[in-house]
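User: Hi! I'm a student and our assignment asks us to look at how structure tokens line up with a sequence. Could you show me two examples?

Assistant: Happy to help. In each example below, the sequence comes first and the structure tokens follow. Example one:
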Amino acid sequence: MKTIRSTRRATMPVALVVGALAVTGCAGGASPGTDEGDASDTLTVWFPGSSQPEIELVTETLVPQFEEETGIDVEVTFVDWGDLAPKLNSAFAAGTAPDVFGHGPAAAADLAANDRVMSLDDFVAEMPQEEQADLSAALTGGQVDGTQYLMPLSISGQLIAYRADLLAEAGVDPEGIASWDDLYAAAEALTVREGDRITRAGVLLGTAAIQRSLTFNALISAAGGELMSADGSTSEFAGPEGVEALTYFTDLYNGEDAVADNLGNDYLNSAPAEQPLTTGAAAMTLLTSQAVSQIVAANPDLEIGVLPALEFSQPAAFGGAGAGLFINADTAAPDAAWDFIEFMTSSEISTAYAEGTGTIPIRASAADSEYVQSSPIVQAFLGQVENFVPNPNVVSWTQIRDVLDTYLEQALAGVATPQEALDGAAEQVAGIVG
């Protein structure tokens, strides 16, 4: 856990300064629907992760700018994702939880159910309608049962990226790949073998821990199915759509015409130089916009393309609202906390944040920004946002996800059929939600 004490007297590097913005409201103003102002003009804020570019952007540029504009002092702490939940739990128990903290949408339902976070509905309602419309694609990902709890800082998604040179050599036209079946056929043409060993995978999907469930979400959604009922009371993944999706997934790695190898390998988080697309160990891989952008930046001579969301019966890809900011339900400074969130999600700042982190901007208007216009990769991902399907925002989702992930691993390893694996997961999940 890295704490950075930032004050409004900090010096911002000239090259990184973002245009000054007028921040709506100020510390000490009244919260929507209340008559009392904040008790503090100092905020504690936790961000998840350990990305050095993000840490530098937030602490050296964005937070000092916010402090300068508002007079609110901010103490920023970055917490590794693996430590975030236990540290938050300990802080809540001790009454020392931060005023504002970052987390992923998967945590929203449990945080709301345990009264850990404040509803943001009144704050959002006071935003101009054009602002709400500009943020609409991101806002829904931060809602639980229609109530806004999370304000996302980015949109994330996973699409198939490909090596244009390898597809050309194999005579594969990427514009002819519109479905998952098309992808399989292309992967067969692209796979290289030495005997029974695959030396170049035609395609790789995420099969490491947790990644399996994200890949499965994309596949079942493309088949017209879903993981959970809307109210989170029952699992839906063991039906025909789930079996179709998981059968496809397992066949890629274990079928008679397998086109993928290195089952369980966490290539998604590999450095650009070690990515299978970079090394030529795979012709196509499922990747985030951040990963593809990093590969392109590190290897400008490689021509990397991105496929649109693929379908069985409808186009779908895993994605949606990325990590964002919650307000602690017990904060003494709700107005200052909202001022900070409103600043971070404002037009110029949110685009600067997306550019600094390599993510998809949360605002539709960012499509016209230099960041998006200068990057065909970001444009490709931004153009597919309407087809992104997030994980369910339901209570106990992370526990449900971990159960499903374990059974998906069994199917991929060939120790259970797709139907057996999904039935086993559904039976265990019933004990969680029942």
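Example two works the same way, sequence first and then tokens:
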Amino acid sequence: MLKINNLHASVDDKKILKGINLEVNAGEVHAIMGPNGSGKSTLAEVIAGKEEFEIKKGNIYLEGEDLEEMAPEERAHKGIFLSFQYPVEIPGVSVTNFIRTAINESRKGRGMEDMPANEMLKLIREKSQLLDIDRKFLSRSLNEGFSGGEKKRNEIFQMAMMEPKLAILDETDSGLDIDALRIVANGVNKLRGKDNAIIVITHYQRLLEYIVPDFVHVLHDGKIVKSGSKELALELEEKGYDWIKQEAAV
């Protein structure tokens, strides 16, 4: 699904990623953990094609296709979905209208016609029921006045509607209380499947109690310094990131 070879990336001539190697297969969930400034969000944004980052060396492949020359919207059309730590508010644009536009733009990018209105309505109804989303929620302006949990639930709804091949959840647990965390995690778990892959970026092990990863990777100073099973997250919770820093320095 996703293959990253020796990825080096910078912003404003500052090196952030310093040789990332990562392979994510369909059906897998990978967790990426690490202290602040280790490069977690940068990795997510580079995969998604954020233009302020410059790839100095290495390659990113999605299903064997090199992404380097693709714009962010092209990558989205290919099936990459990135959730944001801080989703933006768009007053006057309802959740339903936003997702309708996003889906039809994605279809247009793949040479398809707009989704018929009755199919769209059926899909919205199906996915909102799957995620226990109230119909009134869908008529509200996108993220305007939403709580932290509502914003994150809305992003999971967008993910459900877009049905991406690769979903990257960048600190989706940030600022959530335990109830909101469970709701969001439950939505992600319902969307796991053999044909898609999910990368979860988080500081804390608590999210991984609800979204159980197949693999955990620890970033430090722009590199993956340790990989393992879900037990690695428990070890980090117990020992902290200083333990990883000390190992990396050896």
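Here is something you could point out in your write-up. The mean pLDDT is 87.
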